[in-house]
């Protein structure tokens, strides 16, 4: 369809509205293609790891999960110890990072300090995320391990009857690894929680204060519940980061495949196990490490599914 007016003629398809419509359609197809590509990449990674792990899956089946013996000489492998180390070190990190991260997010999203100082603090928090993990590991070796060894000795001397503190600390162990992971995931929790709080409509705060609530009542009873879905999402993303962290954990966790419930004892994680042994592995050991990597993928998938479920439940509760 075209229209002519004197010497001027144009097609509707070439009008600004027509060009904009074509751009919208092209953008939709582009985003769909990118989404499909991401799905294909994830599925291909899972397939490749499963194929590599298949000899170990056939050899060990589910006995892979009920023993802690990892012996490449005798080709006997089990991941219960490293699964325990992965989960417990991540749990220690969350216990430390959640109150610090959410508290810092509230502090940085409110006007407790002048805007210029808050901007500097936000930059410093983001700078934490840019520090390489090997630097965290070096700091952990020379600073954190001596501190936690002294603290662990006190815990063992006074609370050694409790299973979590029953082992005298030797230096590297689960506790320093959990602390270093907490520091590494803090920027994720702070950034996402702060964005969730900052994106809340100002009417919420004004309505709460107008009804007579104090500032702290407004923060804890109105703002945090309203932003809880974003906060929980940030916490779950941080948990996934902690479970998959390799270099810093490898340097300070002790790399012991013995199952020990004490957080003061050396331990290991799945990521650290793969990083330590894959370069020199051969034969069935390679397949066993791939099997361990598949277990880590499944654990991460469970975390993401759990995060989605929790976020949806929280949204339904507060909407």
TrEMBL record:
One of its GO terms (biological process) is phosphate ion transport. Belongs to the binding-protein-dependent transport system permease family. CysTW subfamily. This is Phosphate transport system permease protein. Residues 83-307 form the ABC transmembrane type-1 domain. InterPro entries: MetI-like, MetI-like_sf, Phosphate_PstC, Phosphate_Transport_Permease. Its main location: membrane. The chain crosses the membrane at residues 29-57, 77-108, 120-145, 174-197, 218-239, 288-311. Pfam families: BPD_transp_1 (PF00528). It comes from the Bacteria. The keyword Transmembrane applies. Keywords: Cell membrane, Membrane, Phosphate transport, Transmembrane, Transmembrane helix, Transport. It is a multi-pass membrane protein. It comes from Cyanobacterium aponinum (strain PCC 10605). One of its GO terms (cellular component) is plasma membrane. It is found in: Cell membrane. GO terms for molecular function: phosphate transmembrane transporter activity. Part of the binding-protein-dependent transport system for phosphate; probably responsible for the translocation of the substrate across the membrane.
């Amino acid at each position: 369809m075209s229209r002519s007016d004197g010497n001027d003629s144009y097609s509707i398809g070439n009008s600004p509205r027509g060009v904009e419509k074509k751009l919208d359609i092209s953008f939709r197809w582009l985003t769909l293609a990118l989404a499909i590509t991401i799905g294909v990449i994830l599925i291909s990674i899972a397939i490749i790891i499963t194929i590599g792990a298949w000899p170990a899956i056939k050899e060990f089946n589910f006995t892979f999960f009920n023993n802690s013996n990892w012996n490449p000489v005798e080709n006997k492998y089990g991941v219960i110890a490293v699964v325990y180390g992965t989960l417990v070190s991540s749990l220690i990190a969350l216990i430390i990072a959640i109150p610090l991260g959410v508290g810092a997010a509230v502090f940085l999203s409110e006007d407790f300090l002048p805007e210029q100082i808050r901007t500097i603090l936000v930059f410093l928090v983001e700078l934490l995320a840019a520090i390489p993990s090997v630097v965290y590991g070096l700091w952990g070796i020379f600073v954190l391990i001596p501190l936690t060894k002294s603290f662990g000795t006190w815990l063992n001397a006074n609370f050694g009857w409790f299973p979590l503190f029953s082992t005298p600390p030797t230096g590297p162990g689960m506790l320093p690894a959990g602390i270093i992971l907490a520091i590494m995931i803090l920027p994720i929790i702070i950034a996402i929680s702060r964005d969730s709080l900052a994106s809340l409509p100002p009417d919420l705060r004004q309505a709460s204060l107008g009804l007579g609530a104090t500032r702290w009542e407004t923060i804890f009873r109105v703002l945090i519940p309203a932003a809880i879905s974003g906060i929980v999402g940030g916490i779950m993303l941080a948990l996934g980061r902690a479970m998959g962290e390799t270099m810093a954990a490898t340097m300070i966790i002790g790399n012991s495949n013995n199952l020990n419930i004490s957080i003061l004892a050396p331990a290991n994680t799945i990521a650290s196990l793969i990083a330590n042994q894959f370069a020199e592995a051969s034969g069935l050991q390679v397949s066993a490490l791939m099997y361990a990597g598949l277990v880590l993928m499944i654990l991460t998938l469970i975390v993401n599914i759990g995060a989605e479920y929790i976020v949806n439940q929280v949204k339904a509760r507060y909407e």
